[in-house]
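## Example record

The block below lists the input lines for one assembly entry, exactly as stored, with component labels intact.
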Amino acid sequence: MSGIPKKEKWILWVLLIWILMAGGPGLVLFSKPEFIGYFPELYIYCIVMWIIAIVIHLFFVFKIKFWRVDEQEKEIKQMEADQLAEILKKQEEEVSSIG
Amino acid sequence: MDNFTALIIATAAYLAVCIFIGIYTSRVKVRKASDFFLAGGGLHPIVVSLAMMATVFSAWFILGHQGTTYLQGVPYIAHFMHIPLMGMISLLFFPRLWAVARRNGNITPSELFGNYFDSELVRILIVVVAALYAVPYVALQLRGAGYTLETLSGGRVTAFSGAIVLGVVVVLYVFLGGLKAAAYTDSIQGVLLCIGAFLLGATTIGAVAALNPEGFFPQFKLGIEAQGVGYYTLPSLGETWSWPYILSIALATCGIYFSPSYMMLVTSARTTKTFRWQGIVIMTCIMGFMYFIFSAIVGMGGRNIVTDLANTDALSLEVVFNYMPPVAFVITALGILAAMNSTAAGYLANTSTIFARDLYVRYINKDAPPRKQVFMGRMMVLVIVIIAVIFSVAVLDLLVLLGTFATAFGLLLAPAIFAVTYCPRITKQAINLGLICGIVTVMFTYFGPVRYPLGIHMGGWGLIVNVAVVAVVTKLTAPPSKEALARTHGMWDERYR
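Predicted structure tokens for the full assembly:
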């Protein structure tokens, strides 16, 4: 795995556990023919898993950094700007040579 | 003004806006090919986020999910976990994919993966997957739009003429403005389809509440209980909608996010901040709410207000037609049409680029100047639509089947994406063999003696075999070249610089 610091790897285990709980064997634990309020227990469980997914997302955005490419983005944009300037310069030279 | 007149006027106005955007976005200076094909790589985060959402949510979002929830109940809702999962894919993979594509000047995913693995087979397979997505998706969306217009107009507009008019408009604005036109129209359509889904849910709540003096919730519960225990608990292992099936179909649905069309939208973003927006706000929060709350309300609540529905996909249209007041009727109808149009436009714009760059430029005219490439891209829009129309008229069943296979095949690209973004050890031979074995497995677990063995969806089987083959072959073969690793992983890991 490239570019993932050891101290951030734990979040991938959290993600795996969430996948198994939200769509895997975890569903069986809450698949009972009962209602919580007006809603089936399994449906409530699905909603809870969705809310947990939002929390994991927030954690990724505010606490985990390995997926970010902010520094690389600045370099890439500079490189693209240089390339565009070169193309424009070439086009200007072509126009002036025709003229 | 009656519903029909209002619907026709609103549809005409909506289509006129789409064409105007096509004309407006066609005035672009093409200095390099990416100016047209990737909108210069400068699309605003909100535009890209909404366009990605509108492209992924087709007719299925507003017709299919509600209908299948009506039929299957809570086990079907459990597979909506693919929505937050897609958000996580957006966050974890797209920023790095964006960086690799932009740094190396790759316009299409075939260029990105073909160059990284130095493999012609990977290039061709990605073109095939792109075609598998585009042809059925474009054809089915146009057919769906025609069917919707026919139903909502009470048969006064035929499905065929509706599909033709909407098809011509989509082709026109994609032909003129390419990805930029598709993205801008998609972002407007994304808002429309959200409003449509919201109104659909609100109308169902009102209609269900009207049946019971105690209000919505007691009646909602009665409707669910009346369907029996199987409607709100999981079936036994091995059966359809048991947990292995739910997990595997949810993962297969995520294949849409790995589709070549999507990767082009990723590259067109101005900044990687886009994917934070897309992942958390649009997908996980807004679409999560639409799926887990509104689709569930319409689907399960629909049991109270529409009984004995022969074609469950018609549930949403029944609610729109029978329960909505005129203004909500028109807005929701536009939302449904927008869901279909936006998906067709997104696939059309991106796949035409893939065909132009990866077939024409790669194999026919390597030195084609940017203007010539743009011309070919526009011609490819027409070619794809003509093929889609022929398929939809001649072999509709095959088309539906191709659409089902497309998501499973899209998921097979996951190891290749993983290799470029996180796992430099994965080799070209592993990806090639993994893809071939994955495709064969998907076909076998669908057409073979037992469909979905052990209750696992074909997309799940394809991924299991693909990953196993990739792991074994990677152990036995040499890693990618130092140059390829430096251009990709070197950006975020100094060991590869």
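Chain A has four helices and two strands. Chain A touches chain B through 50 residues (CB under 8 Å).
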